Amino acid sequence: MTRAARSHAVEDARLAAHVxxxxxxxxxxxxxxxxxxxxxxxxxxxxxxAFGAVLLPLVFVLLFAYVFGSAIQVPGGGNYHxxxxxxxxAQTMIGTLPGIAVGVASDNRSGLxxxxxxxxxxxxxxxxxxxxxxxxxxxxxxxxxxxxxxxVGWSPDGSVVETAGAFALLLFMAFAVTWAGVWVxxxxxxPDGADGIVMSIIFPAMFLSGIFVPVAGLPDGLRxxxxxxxxxxxxxxxxxxxxxxxGPLPDVFTLQHPVITSLIWAVVLMAIFVPLAxxxxxxxxx
Length: 286
Known about the structure:
Blueprint: H1 3-21, H2 27-41, H3 51-68, H4 80-93, H5 96-110, H6 112-117, H7 125-152, H8 160-188, H9 191-207, H10 222-228, H11 230-242, H12 253-256, H13 258-285
């Protein structure tokens, strides 16, 4: 048995002991906390797992701010760096997808899911613990983007309530998106396959949105797709709440009411993928 395998075995044994000793009244919350802590403790051992949530948004900020930024103008005026960083916050939200999909597929292939199913824990605690861990990791990514944004010229010019609401909306949307990643990881069961599927969705969604450029300048066909893209609504919501430049907004509900639209998207994603992920996890146990 390798050192990593022994480490995982010892950690799983400790987790089982803690779960069995947990008070009955707060059993589920205790299980989710322990399982989330288990996932977070693996980050220092495998730091590349944090790349998608922490480093990738930083790369996009620097790339578009200093390489392409001089060639991009916000119609109607305004600082493009502020426009960009507010959009990058929306892009950071989907940075959890590759990490959680690959992590769940890896746990599935290694047999961890089978071991956890033998414990007397709630069926949803295993994947809920994963989603909570991803949200904690995402907070680190949001902090990196905020610090980098302050350096390149972005600042949250809205009120304290609006700024807090912006970050709360980001975390709510990220929580919904992580359940989609969990479902992909459970369906694919192979880390490489999960990463390939998720990345083939993320990049078209990012570039066919209003994250980097105003959608009003896109040609017909692409513009209509971008207007319906949830990332466009979320990026526009961030710009409104942070009081960053928005550029001209098409007269469509999704962009005239981006905060409400983003909340609707989050609820719809959770309504679809939470039951799908839990049902898939239960069927795998049979």
